Amino acid sequence: MRISHLLLASTLLCSHLARGDPWQYELLLMPSAQAVGTFHRQAPVTEIVDEVVQIDTLFTVQRGPFKLFGEFLLSDHEGDLERFQLGWQATQDTVVWIGRYHQPTSVWNHDHHHGQYLQTSITRPFVDEWEDLGGILPQHFTGMLIESGHKAFGSWRLRTAVAGGLAPIITPQGLEPFDLLHPDSRHHQVGFQGSVSLHPGELTESGFGLLAATDELPAIGLTAPPLPGLDHADLKLLGAFGIYAAAEWKILATWYHARANLCSPVSSTGENFGVGYVEAERRLPHDLTGFLRWESSADAGESIYLKLFPMFVRQRNVLGLRWDFVSHQALTLQLSDTNTLDGHFSDIRLQWSAAFL
C-alpha cells in the first residue's frame, strides 16, 4: 500500500470518528525497569542492551464502527510509535485495520505486545524478538490487517488474520521496519502474512493453529554481506502453534520452518532452517508464578541468512519466578543460558513491571 493511500484513508476514517455516536476511549500505561548481569560470557555479541527503563503506552478511541488504536514505547534510549492502526468494524466478527501493525504470525507478540507486565518471563523468545533488538523475523508492517472470528464445530471458535504491507529492510543494524514518524518507502517491498486457529471457546487462550508468511527484504548498505553483492532476501515461513491455558498451568509452543532465498545480481542461493520454543508457566501459592522456556533451532549453523544477525540465539534455556506482590505490579527474577552462532553466555535479570489504567 502506498503511503499516500494510507494517509488518505486515515483522513477519511478520522472524519467519520467526528460524527454521531458517543466517544469511547481507554489508556493503559505499562512501565518497567530491570537490571541485567552476564557471566560465563564467550560470545562476542549478545542481545543484552542497556534498555533497562521503559514505558509502553496503549490507547484506543472508538466511535460507532470506527476505531483508532496506538502503541508508543519510550525507553532510556529511544522513542518509537510501535503501532498506529485505524479500524472499521465491518461485521460483528470482523475488523479491518490500516496502519502499522504487529504481524499476525507471531503468537507471542500478538498476545503480549511491548508491555513487559503482560508476559510472565522478562525476555521474549528470540524468534519473536523485535527488529531493533536483533530479531531475525519481520515483526512490524505498514498496510492492511483483517482479523475475524467465527463459530465452528459447535462451541469452538475459528480465528483468522490476514495482512499485507510494507516489510522491513535489511541494514547493517539488522531489520528496519517502515517508520511512520519518518516515512520513507523507497526501498521497502510488500510482505504478506496469515494465521488460522481453533479455540474451544470465544474468550479462552487455549487453542492451536497454523501460520504462514512471505516477505521480500531488500538489503541496503551492507558492507560485507555473507553473500557477495546481496540485493535482497525472499523469506517464506510456515509454522504451527499450540496454547494450553488452565487455572494453574499455561503452556505455549511455536515452531517455524523458514525458507530463505538470498539473491544478488550474479547469483542466488536457497536454504532452510527451523526455529521455535516451548514455555511452561505454573501458578504457585502466595501470588508466585514459576516458568521455564526451551528455545531451539535446526540447521541454523549453515544458514547464510542467519549470519546477517550476529545476536541470533540458536539455543536457550530460561528459568524464572514472578511475584505479583500487589495489584497490577510484579517482580520477576530470571536466569538464562544462551548459545549464539558464535559463542555462549549466561545472564541474570531482575525486573519490576506494572500496568496502570
Describe this structure in words.
The protein is mostly beta strands and 357 residues long. It has a domain at 34-54 and 116-136 and 149-354: Porin (Beta Barrel), CATH 2.40.160. 6% of the residues lie in helices and 57% in strands. It has helices at residues 3-17, 107-112, and strands at 24-39, 53-63, 66-75, 79-91, 94-102, 140-152, 156-166, 169-171, 174-176, 190-199, 207-218, 232-245, 249-263, 268-284, 288-298, 313-326, 329-340, 344-354. The strands form two sheets. A 16-stranded antiparallel barrel has the order 1-2-3-4-5-6-7-10-11-12-13-14-15-16-17-18. Strands 8-9 form a two-stranded antiparallel sheet. Mean pLDDT is 90; it is low at 1-18.
CATH class of one domain: Mainly Beta
Please write the string of helix (H) and strand (E) elements.
HEEEEEHEEEEEEEEEEEEE
Shape: globular
Give the mean pLDDT.
Answer: 90
Tell me the fraction of residues in β-strands, as a range: over 45%
